[in-house]
Hints:
The structure holds two protein chains of two kinds.
Chain A: H1 10-26, H2 36-46, E1 47-48, H3 65-94, H4 105-138, H5 145-155, H6 163-178, H7 191-202, H8 229-236, E2 246-247, E3 252-253, H9 257-262, H10 274-287, H11 292-315, H12 327-332, H13 336-343, H14 354-374, H15 382-411
Antiparallel strand pairs in A: 2-3
Chain B: E1 3-6, E2 23-24, E3 31-34, E4 47-48, E5 55-56, E6 61-65, E7 68-74, E8 79-86, E9 92-99, H1 118-128, E10 135-137, E11 141-142, E12 151-155, H2 166-169, H3 174-187, E13 191-197, E14 213-218, H4 226-233, E15 242-244, H5 247-258, E16 265-271, E17 279-284, H6 290-293, E18 302-306, E19 313-315, E20 327-332, E21 338-339, H7 396-404, H8 408-413, H9 421-430, H10 437-451
Parallel strand pairs in B: 1-14, 2-17, 12-13, 12-15, 13-14, 16-20
Antiparallel strand pairs in B: 3-9, 4-6, 5-8, 6-7, 8-9, 10-11, 10-15, 16-17, 18-19, 18-20
Helix pairs in contact in B: 3-5, 9-10
Amino acid sequence: MDPLKPIRNSVGKKLWKQVEELEPSFKKDGMLHSLHSTFDAFKTFLFVPPTVTSKGAHIRDAIDLKRTMFLVIIAMIPALLHGIFNVGHLHYVANGMYPHFFDGFGPKLVYGLIHVLPIVIVSYVVGLGIEFAFAQFRGHPVNEGFLVSGMLIPLVMPPDIPLWMVALATAFSVIIVKEAFGGTGMNILNVALTARVFIFFAYPTYISGDQVWIAGLPESPDAFSGATVLGVWAKQGYDAMSHVGFSTVSQQVGYTPMDMFLGFIPGSIGETSKLAILLGAVFLIWTGIGSWRIMLSVFVGAFLMGLILNAAALGFDLSNPHLAVPAYYHLLAGGLAFGAVFMATDPVTATQTTTGKYIYGLLVGMISILIRVLNPAYPEGVMLAILFMNVFAPLIDHMVIQSNIKRRLARG
Amino acid sequence: MSRLIRLTKGYDIKIKGAPVGKLDSSFSAKTFSVKPVDFHGLSPIPKLFVSEQTEVKAGDPLFYDKSDERIHYCSPVSGEVVAIHRAEKRAIDEVVILADSDIRYRTWEPADPNTLTREAIIERMLESGAWLFLRQRPYNVVASPDEAPKAIFISGFDSSPLAPDMAMVMEGKEEAFQTGIRILSKLTSGKIHLSLSARQRPPKVFDTVQGVEIHWFDGPHPTGNVGVQIHHIDPVNKGEVVWHIHPEDVANLATLFTKGIYSPERTVAVAGPMVSKPHYVKTLQGACIEGLVSNNLISDHVRCISGNVLTGRTVASNGHLGFFDHLVTVIEEGDHAELLGWLFPSYARPTRSMAYWAYANEAPDGYAVTTSMHGEERAFVMSGQYEQVLPMDIYPVHLLKAIMARDFDLMEGLGIYEVTEEDFALCEFVCTSKIDVQEILREGLDYMRSQN
C-alpha cells in the first residue's frame, strides 16, 4: 500500500517525500552515514514508521516509549512554569521590588526565563549530543530516556548555577552512569540525580548554603540570605521559620506551611511548589505511567520517620532542633515531593515488583528524613536517599522474587 | 462442588466485527491440510507416510514424529494428497489434501468406552490422530502417551478477542461431550476440571455433564486461557504433568469410539474489522479458508489470521486453518507511516494505558485494529505493566530475563512450567518497549524441554 495513504494533509505528504529523498545519503554508503542514528531519531520523531507486526501478537497497544516519555515531560510542565516564575518573583522581592504576587508579572517571567531556559537548553544539548553519539557508535536507535532526564536536571538545579557546571554534570551522568552501563533501561542510578549529586560533591558551594537559591541576591556579602526552609530548620529550629526566612532590602520574610505548599520560597527550580508537583503526580498516576505505590509509600515513609524523630525529641535533650519538626512539615519541605513523584518513580532505577515498590518507597521516605534531620552536613536528604535506594532496588526485588520461588517450592 | 475464582488482572481488547448470527451450513472447503508447525516440539522434518498423489481416507496417517513413532498425524478428510509444501532446510510446512465430495473413513469397531481399557483407548487415539487433541503442560506440546497426567483440564469458554461463542461451537454435542468425558476419565486417575465463565450463561451442554469438577471464573481475558485456570485450580509443579483439551475435541473424541471414525469437527467463526459479514461455519480441522474470506472482505490489503489476533498465525487468503483454531480473524495491514503519530494518532486504537485517553473509551462496537507496531522496539523500561494483564502469581519480566540469561534454576523457580505463549500474549500487546514476549517465552520453553 502507499505508505502515504493515511497522511491526509499536504504538509505531511511533502515532509514524507523530503525525508524519503534524504534517506539514501544516510544509508550505508551514503556520505552522511555517520549521522544515521541522528537521522533515524528525527525521522521516527516526525513519522511513526510503517512497521507491522511480524511475530507474536498481531496487534499492539498504541503506547510506545516516545509517548510515555512525552507524557512525563507534560507532567513536569507545571513545576517548570512555576519554577520560571518563582525565580523571577524571588529575585524582585529580594531586591525590594514588586513584593506582591501579581506585581511585575511580566518582568518576573522574563527574568525567570532568562535564568532557567539556558539551563534547560544546555542540559538537552549536552545530554542528547552524547546519546546520539553513543547510538551512532553502537549502531543502536536513539532511546527516548534522556528526554525526561534532560528536563529533570534543570528542575533540580539552583537558578544561578553556572552553565558549564550543568554541562559537565550532565556529561558525567550520561556517560558514566547511563551509557557505561548500556544505555536507557540498563542504568542502576537515576541519571538526573547523579548529575545533581556530582555538582553537590564537586562544587558544593554552588548548590548548598543560603546564598544560591535566589537568583541575583542584592550585592552585599552576608547581609542578605536566601535560606531555604530546611536551612532555617537546621540552624534555628522549625519555629523560627515564621519570622526567619530570606532577607530582602527592607525586611525578613518568614515561611508558613502554605508558602511551602504553594512554593514561592527559595529552592531548586522545580522543587518548591508542591501544588505544581501534585498536578504532575495526578497526571502521571491517571495516565498509568507513574507508580502511585512508590509515590504514596515515599510520603508514608517520610511521615513515619518524622513521627519517630518527634518521639525521640520528647525523650532526649533537644540539642538538635530539627528533631521536633512536626512530621507533616517534612512532606512539604525541600525536595521530598519532587523526589517522590519524579525521581523515585523512575521505572528503570526503582524496584520492579509490586511488593518491592512499597518497600523501596518506604525506605526512600524514611532515609530522606533521617539524613535531613540527623546529618549535620546535608540539610536535604532526598537526593542521597533515592540514589542509595537505587543501589538497593535490585536486592529488594531479588528478595521478593526469592519469596515467590519459595512459595512455588512449598506448593509442590 | 464448585467455586468462583474472581480475577481482576487482564484486558479485553474490543475489536470490531465480532462473529454473529447463525451457522452458514452451505460452506464446504475444497482442500484441507495438516501443518507440523501447529504442534510444538514436533521436529520440523517429520517422517512422511504419503507423497503427492497418494489417496488417503479420513484417519489415515500422513506423517509421524521421529521421536515418537506411535503418534500419527492423520488426514481429516479423504482424498488425494495434492501438495507437500516445504520450507527452508526441507522442513515440512503443510500437507494438503484435495477432499472427496463424500468422505470415506478409515474405520474402527464402534465400542463402548466403558468396556475398553486405558491402553486400548490410547492405542486407538494414537492410530487415528485423535491423540493430538490432547496437549500437555508444561511446554504446551503434544501429550506423551507414556505419562499419567495428574488431571485433565477443559476451558469451557474462550475470552480471547473475537472468540467464537462456545454455545455455538458446542450446539447439539451434549451427548458426545458426555461420552468424551467418560473416555477422558479413563486416561487419568485424577480429576477432570471444567472451567466456566461466570459472566454469561454457560452453554447448555455443560449444564448436565457428569464426571467433571466445575470451576467458575470471572474476569477479563486471559481468564479463559486454560493455563491461567490450571494455575488457580491445581498448578503444575516440577515433575508434574497435566493435559488439556478443547471442548469440541472432547466431542470429536467420542465420535472415534461411538462411530469408529476420525472426524475432527471445527465450528469456525470468521470475524474482524475487515470482514463484511462475520459468521460461523461448520467444517473440519485444517480447512481452506478461501471460501470464508473470498467476497467477504472490505479491503484487499489485509492480514488473515488463523486464530485470534494475540496468538494466531498469519495465513494466506487461500491458506488453511491451524489444527487447534476455531477462528479466522481478518484485520487491516497497518504498514503506513503516521505523521507525529505518537503525538496525534490519526485513528482510534486500543490501549491498556491511559496514555491515549481520548481513545480509552472510544469503541462502542470495537476498534478497527491494524497490524501496526505503533512504535519501535526498545529496551525494557516500564515496570508493572505486564503484571497488570497476567492474573497469575508469576513475575513475567523476571521470568523473561531469566530466559534471556538461560538461567535454568531461575526459570524453573519463577514458574516457566505453568505458562505458555498465549498466557503472555497480552504482556506482549501492552508492552511499551514492543518486545517480542511470546517468542522469548517459546525459546525458554524449548530450552527447558531440551534440558529435562
